[in-house]
Amino acid sequence: MTAKDKLSHSLQGTAPRFNARESWRIFGIMAEFVEATERLNAIRPAVSIFGSARIPPDHMYYMLTEQIARQLSDAGFSVISGGGPGIMEAANKGAFFGKSPSVGLNIQLPMEQQANPYQDISQTFQHFFARKFMFVKFAAAYVVMPGGFGTLDELLEAMTLIQTGKSRRIPVILVHGPFWQGLLDWFRDRLVAERMIHPDDLDLVQVIDKPEDVVEAIFKHYETRGFLPLPEEHELMLNL
């Protein structure tokens, strides 16, 4: 019996069972999208804040995030974070004590993420892609604090969606220039120089260090229009 025959034989009888299970999971995914959309529809305008889960409360990044979130909340923006510890907690905490809702989009992980206590609205997801969709769908701006793989994933996905025209153009703000400078230099020296991206793609992000300047930059972006998606942007988001 060939290796191909052995593989085919080993899969016989399991495929129907597997396919049926996967098909039923689609309903669970649909329910996750519907429930989250219904719960979050009233939070606009909102700003999504990303950053490391490993930052302790006495770290300057934590305190800086809390200040930014508080100023955004007092300015009328709901603040969305991943709902966990570190920068996520700082974002929720700042908004929680401000004037606008603090929203946590929690995720179920093998090593269970503990939801922070500073959430006016807490929504839990099983699937990363559903959670990431909600970060994009409801955000009028992205504020990206120092972080690891998850933070970079959110940043690069936002930039990709905007670059490819699959998402509307919103402010993507990197906070704390010294942390991000090496990455931005690499974008310019490698990606632009080797024509992997267009030089104008670097304009998709801006680096800002002060909380009040973050708020000002977001207002400036929307000064000639409202915060809600325009009709053509709304149609775009439906096809995200």
TrEMBL record:
<keyword id="KW-0378">Hydrolase</keyword>
<dbReference type="InterPro" id="IPR052341">
    <property type="entry name" value="LOG_family_nucleotidases"/>
</dbReference>
<dbReference type="GO" id="GO:0005829">
    <property type="term" value="C:cytosol"/>
</dbReference>
<dbReference type="Pfam" id="PF03641">
    <property type="entry name" value="Lysine_decarbox"/>
</dbReference>
<protein>
    <recommendedName>
        <fullName>Cytokinin riboside 5'-monophosphate phosphoribohydrolase</fullName>
        <ecNumber>3.2.2.n1</ecNumber>
    </recommendedName>
</protein>
<dbReference type="InterPro" id="IPR005269">
    <property type="entry name" value="LOG"/>
</dbReference>
<dbReference type="GO" id="GO:0009691">
    <property type="term" value="P:cytokinin biosynthetic process"/>
</dbReference>
<comment type="similarity">
    <text>Belongs to the LOG family.</text>
</comment>
<keyword id="KW-0203">Cytokinin biosynthesis</keyword>
<dbReference type="GO" id="GO:0008714">
    <property type="term" value="F:AMP nucleosidase activity"/>
</dbReference>
<dbReference type="InterPro" id="IPR031100">
    <property type="entry name" value="LOG_fam"/>
</dbReference>
